[in-house]
Write a structure and sequence with these properties.
Blueprint lengths: L13 H7 L45 E14 L7 E11 L15 H7 L5 H4 L17 E3 L10 E7 L10 H9 L3 E5 L7 E3 L5 E3 L2 H5 L6 H26 L7 H5 L1 E11 L1 H12 L3 E7 L4 E2 L8 E2 L1 H5 L5 E6 L11 H9 L4 E6 L10 H9 L6 H8 L4 H21 L16 E3 L2
Parallel strand pairs: 1-3, 4-5, 4-8, 8-9, 9-12, 12-13
Antiparallel strand pairs: 1-2, 2-5, 6-7, 10-11, 13-14
Length: 438
């Protein structure tokens, strides 16, 4: 989840404050307790636990079935900043139009079992970031609508690529509803994990890399602003490495030839939630390969050492010369660009096309899978109602999901495909939940 605020940062490391009782005025959760790899056998099998709550993702709205595949990437030229002495490893997933829909038993899991157990456990992001009760939800039961390793749909030529970045402490899966929807509309979407910052990242060899941030937060004299700046720099470096790897993947045989050939690397966009939205903007600033971006409720400034004050990012100070969409919420420390120092500076300095919209009656988690999943889990007693209201407000879940998909899809259709439905021209009677700011 992101970090923003006027005078004090209220979201970026919220989990650190809850989970390790560090007195920080900060934002999101960083779910796990340590940096060591956790073996798959460390948690009880889901099959042995009964009565767990279950929830389902909303179906994609586009005309195409969806396929997905996962890859491990290794940056041999960069030491992992959170694990000194080891090269930086990443996990990514590609989501793309496929030849046929997945049958019920073919649908890819939302999370692999060892990751789902940790995500929903006492040290996972579901508890710290979203207020879920520990070990009360079967996250491994949740299914996507995608078929693993499905043959890609051919005939349309190379497809525009959209990168997805989740919030601080969240895994790359936390945004699958929007990701699948973009893939069903004809995009290849690449989701990026940030190991040792994310609550957990599962690697193919069975390792589970858990977050080092709670341990860092417990250190005396922590400079929270410096930690967030380092985390953001790592995220940008990870994303730029993924861009490099996408070019290599087109020819080196790690992807099936048809899928590799579907990547149009001249039409790359990026979207993200919270710290992921910040990552989208900052990576666009640093790397011209990204042509258009969306920030879903992520700040564009850093706090000072004690979590208070404002230090602008370079993307806020310089702006962008390419299209960018800001999407805010009615969280107390969010809202339109005029109410946020980083957004206000970004708005002033951006020369490219820009727009700013706010989802009414929403909260910070409304642009994530929390909007669809938490109400279902709350009805089964797995998430307290007050946590649901705090995370997603009281906007109607189905309308919030529809609006998010429509505005993000309209933006990328306009700037990566040249198809303009004019939704972003101004206020729309189709979406009274959205206040158009500019």
């Amino acid at each position: 989840m992101g970090e923003r605020g006027r005078g004090q940062d209220t979201r970026g490391l919220r989990g650190l404050r809850r989970g390790v009782a560090v007195a920080l005025a900060a934002t999101t959760v960083l779910g796990a307790a340590g940096a060591t790899a956790v073996p798959a056998s460390a948690a009880p099998a889901v099959a042995e636990r009964r009565g767990l709550a279950r929830a389902a993702l909303p179906r994609p709205t586009g005309p195409y079935p969806v396929g997905t595949t996962a890859l491990r990437l290794v940056d041999t030229g960069r030491e992992d900043p959170w694990q000194p002495g080891h090269p930086r490893e990443l996990m990514i997933s590609l989501w793309y139009p496929a030849t046929r829909p997945a049958h019920e038993r073919e649908r890819a899991p939302y999370m692999v079992p060892r990751a789902g157990r940790h995500f929903g456990g006492p040290q996972g992001a579901a508890v710290f970031n979203y207020g879920a009760l520990p070990d009360r939800t079967d996250w491994t039961w949740v299914r996507t609508h995608a078929r693993p390793d499905a043959p890609p749909l051919l005939g349309a030529g190379p497809r525009p690529v959209v990168l997805w970045s989740a919030g601080l402490g969240d895994p790359r899966t936390w945004g699958t509803g929007l990701v699948e929807d973009l893939a069903s509309r004809g995009y290849v979407v690449v989701t990026v994990d940030h190991p040792y910052e994310a609550s957990e990242v599962a690697f193919p060899d069975g390792r589970l890399a858990t977050s080092v941030f709670p341990a860092l937060a417990a250190q005396p004299g922590l400079d929270i602003g410096a930690l967030l700046r380092e985390a953001q720099a790592v995220r940008v470096a990870d994303t730029r490495f993924v861009l490099d790897e996408l070019a290599a993947l087109r020819t080196d045989g790690r992807l099936p030839a048809a899928l590799a050939g579907s990547l149009d690397l001249d039409r790359i966009g990026m979207a993200g939630h919270s710290a992921g939205g910040f990552t989208a903007a900052q990576t666009m600033h640093d790397d011209p390969r990204i042509k258009a971006g969306v920030n879903l409720d992520g700040q564009l400034h850093y706090p000072g050492p004690d979590g208070t004050g404002v230090r602008l990012s370079s993307v806020a100070e310089d702006g962008l010369d390419r299209p960018f969409l800001l999407m805010g919420t009615e969280n107390a420390d969010s809202g339109p660009y005029t109410a946020q120092p980083g957004w206000a500076a970004f708005w002033q300095h951006t020369r490219g096309w820009k727009a700013d919209v706010t989802l009414l009656r929403s909260r910070h988690g409304s642009y994530t899978d929390a909007q669809a999943l938490l109400p279902q889990l709350a009805r089964q007693g797995a998430v307290p109602q007050e946590a649901v209201r705090g995370d997603i407000g009281d906007v109607r879940p189905e309308r919030a999901v529809l609006a998010t998909r429509a505005y993000v899809g309209s933006f990328f259709d306009r700037w990566l495909r040249g198809h303009d439905d004019h939704l972003l021209d101004g206020p729309s009677p189709r979406f009274p939940e959205i206040r158009y700011e500019g």
